[in-house]
Design brief:
The complex is a heterodimer of chains A (about 325) and B (about 450). Chain A has about 325 residues and is of the alpha/beta class. Chain A is about 35% helix and about 15% strand. The N terminus of chain A is likely disordered. Classes of the chains: A alpha/beta (about 325), B alpha/beta (about 450).
């Protein structure tokens, strides 16, 4: 079972060789089942590393990891840095505000510069959708998308899925409800594609102005996706309730009439979480606006796995760095 | 004298309902005679076997970038590209710096055209000062200085009252307002069509309702003023329904569509399958955006039914580095003069476009829409001086790096297309011949 720890992380599965061939991780939509299994098995091994008295290895000695953040971040950036250092990699952190980006250097030039000074793996966070896709085309370094605009946040989705499997086992057939601002959320998108590949049933719930309008027209891709504005029906029989951060500026643009109206209809609190299965887990990618999309009691309650998500985030990122640093670039003849 | 005999082509002139295999004689720069066989002494013979011989193409919508944006394109570079693409008349858009919103700016532009242009450039002046949509340009002065239409292209005129005043003022002089119909509050700074692909890519989409609601308003103001209105680069099925109804009601409305919108859909931006398709292709970022397949089908039907008066390129060159950016940061606009004919003939060869209707939309259709001088867009004896000769069946692969235009950004880069311009006679002179490619 992928959720059980394996002592030998590189042991191939019986049907498919478990090797990592990808140059980049841009989105979960690019990953197949074997990729997910390989990442999760590797993550299990990394959790073992993390549980050692001295939670460090030198596996990635000589590998240079550059994090390039055009947007603020606490947990994603810190967990990549901790993951890199735990594996013995050299880590260089760059922020747009402290680099030549402020002098007008283009993304492509910045990425090429980082490659030229020796970065093997580039972790990129950017406010515009598609930035990682663009960067990946202009560098031989591996690009890990750490969030691009509204498009994708694959490492967040991977740690979310890993956390679900840790608590509930297999994902196939599970009802996952994502509540909130789906339309503007890269976390929601990356979770949707990943959950679909793993066979989950997905319900997207939020105000009409914050829901995708065209997903349901693509039945062939998205037949396991339900979109609803009704939180009660959405939460009924739910195994997982994933809440999303509500950007408060949405109110200024009349996307929601008021925060209190949002809270009244969509907040996950003791009353609304009771509509889900009693065994349901509650997730949030952070940072939490306690009292808005989720109540403080539920965020810190017994069903919450929010801190497990953060902890798993380090192991997931260690696994990805390991896979990229040791990836097979020689394709079989 | 300066006589030209074009021999053995299919002479196809939709504006004069002429379609015959034979010869075309030009005398002293003018089309003189068209018939199955002509003998002429002392004439320059241009063989045209296997080719279509038609009027020089007219592009109602072209961005030359000069003055002000010479890093993107110049009058010299872009009119050379137009000539090589079979266009002998183009209407230049006023989003330059300075913008031609007064007679002296227009005069300056015309002088530069006179010295640098390879073909006839008919300037479109700005409808409002600075294209800001607030105060009308000096319309009669600009008409006297020689503009053929008014437009704030790129910017819609948001105020219904200003739109009304512009139509009344220009209409009284018989000059059309060419309008980029868009409700900016609905298009919401969108960077592509709103739909499944924009939602997947996480890009802000422009719903087609942003265009159609503005089209509906503009048609209502046209009905109020009875003044000529030209709707630029329509993209949606619903817009065409509105235009068809307005035309049936007898309103003086004309419209255009771009070859890009006839050939491509929003799939060119990213594709459904984001694993294998090139995603976030800034070479497919245009405004108004590429729409759905249903919209594309409606545009094709609109050309075939004659609802669409003109196929206009909206050629909008940019420097390469401007397009090598994050999708949302890259400017709208692509280089499309040099693929214009081939996209159209590829569609006619596939049976998606009617050949006669499409050819009319490149020649007599646009001439009528902008009320251009007699003889343009046709092969009328003693009036017409421009002839384009093309092979509708020649296959070639688009290499945008080889474009004559300074804009090297094309969503069709690498596509195999069918149809190529071979020779162009501009103002009675053989001005360009394609070197033999084999």
């Amino acid at each position: 079972m992928p959720t059980q720890s394996k002592s030998d992380k590189s042991e191939p599965t019986k049907s498919e060789p478990a090797i990592w061939l990808r140059k980049d991780l841009l989105d979960t939509a690019d990953l197949n089942l074997a990729d997910f299994n390989l990442i999760f098995e590797t993550t299990d091994a990394m959790i073992e590393v993390r549980e050692r008295p001295i939670a460090r290895t030198t596996t990635l000695r000589g590998t240079t990891l550059a994090t390039l953040f055009y947007e603020n971040s606490t947990r994603t950036r810190a967990s990549f840095e901790i993951a890199g250092k735990a594996l013995g990699a050299d880590v260089v952190n760059l922020s747009a505000s402290q680099s030549s980006v402020g002098k007008g250097e283009s993304l492509i030039d910045t990425v090429r510069t980082l490659e030229a000074i020796g970065a093997d793996i580039l972790v990129l966070r950017h406010p515009l959708s598609g930035a990682s896709t663009l960067a990946s085309k202009y560098t031989n370094a591996s690009v890990i998308n750490a969030g691009d605009g509204m498009h994708a946040h694959p490492t967040q989705a991977l740690l979310d899925l890993f956390t679900i499997k840790q608590h509930l086992g297999e994902l196939s057939g599970r009802k996952i409800v994502i509540v909130g601002d789906i339309l503007h959320s890269r976390v929601a998108r990356s979770n949707i594609w990943a959950l679909l590949t793993l066979g989950a049933q997905i319900t997207l719930c939020g105000p009409a102005t914050l829901l995708p309008k065209y997903f349901t027209q693509h039945k062939s891709d998205l037949q396991n996706v339900t979109v609803t504005t009704n939180l009660k029906t959405a939460l009924s029989n739910a195994d997982v309730v994933m809440t999303l951060r509500l950007q408060k500026e949405r109110q200024r643009n009349s996307i929601i009439p008021s925060l209190s109206e949002y809270i009244r209809n969509y907040q996950i609190n003791n009353d609304t979480i009771a509509l889900a299965k009693s065994t349901a887990i509650v997730m949030h990618p952070g940072p939490v606006n306690a009292g808005f999309e989720i109540s403080q009691e539920v965020a810190e309650g017994k069903q919450s796995v929010i801190s497990a998500q953060v902890t798993n985030g380090v192991a997931i990122r260690m696994a990805l760095l390991y896979l990229f640093a040791t990836r097979t670039t020689d394709f079989p003849a | 004298m300066n006589n030209i005999l074009i021999r053995g082509g299919r002479i196809f002139d939709p504006g004069n309902q002429l379609d015959l295999y034979g010869d075309l004689l030009m005398v002293n720069g003018f089309v003189s005679e068209i018939s199955q066989h002509i003998e002429a002494k002392n004439a320059q013979i241009i063989p045209a076997e296997g080719c279509i011989v038609t009027a020089g193409f007219i592009d109602l919508h072209c961005h030359l970038r000069e003055p002000g944006f010479e890093q993107k394109g110049t009058i010299a570079s872009e009119t050379k590209a137009a000539l090589e693409s079979g266009f002998t008349t183009i209407c230049s858009m006023p989003n330059t710096d300075p913008t031609p919103d007064n007679a002296s700016a227009l005069q300056g532009l015309k002088e530069k055209i006179l010295s640098d242009s390879h073909i006839r450039v008919l300037p479109v002046a700005a409808t409002t000062q600075g294209r800001a949509g607030l105060i009308l340009s000096e319309i009669s002065e600009l008409v006297a200085a020689g503009c053929v239409a008014f437009s704030d292209d790129g910017n819609p005129i948001e105020s219904g009252l200003i739109m009304r005043r512009a139509l009344e003022t220009a209409g009284s002089l018989g000059i059309p307002i060419a309008e980029h119909s868009d409700d900016p509050s609905l298009s919401n700074n969108g960077v592509m069509n709103e739909g499944y692909i924009s939602e997947r890519l996480g890009l802000i989409g422009q719903p087609s309702a942003a265009e159609t609601s503005a089209v509906a308003r503009n048609i209502e103001i046209c009905a109020l003023t009875k003044a000529p209105l030209h709707l630029m680069h329509l993209t949606s099925a619903r817009s065409l329904e509105l235009v068809a109804d307005a035309k049936a009601a007898g309103l003086p409305i004309t419209c255009e569509v771009t070859p890009s919108h006839l050939y491509l859909t929003e799939d060119a931006v990213g594709g459904d399958n984001l694993v294998n398709e090139p995603a976030y292709d800034t070479a497919a970022k245009i405004n108004p955006p590429l729409r759905s397949e249903a919209d594309r089908q409606a545009l094709l039907a609109g050309v075939n039914a004659g609802i669409i008066d003109a196929i206009a390129t909206d050629h909008a060159p940019h420097a390469s580095e401007e397009k090598l950016q994050e999708f949302s940061k890259a400017p709208f606009g692509i280089s499309c003069l040099e693929t214009a004919l081939a996209t159209i003939t590829t569609l006619t060869n596939r049976g998606e476009l009617d050949f006669e209707a499409a050819l009319k939309a490149l020649t007599a259709g646009p001439a009528a829409a902008f009320r251009l001088q007699e003889g343009l867009g046709k092969l009328t004896p003693n009036l017409s001086k421009d002839v384009t000769i093309f092979d509708a069946n020649e296959q070639w692969i688009v290499d945008a790096h080889q474009f004559t235009s300074m804009g090297k950004n094309s969503p069709l880069h690498g596509y195999e297309l069918t149809g190529r311009v071979k020779k162009v006679i501009y103002d009675g002179i053989l001005s360009w011949s394609r070197e033999s490619t084999t």
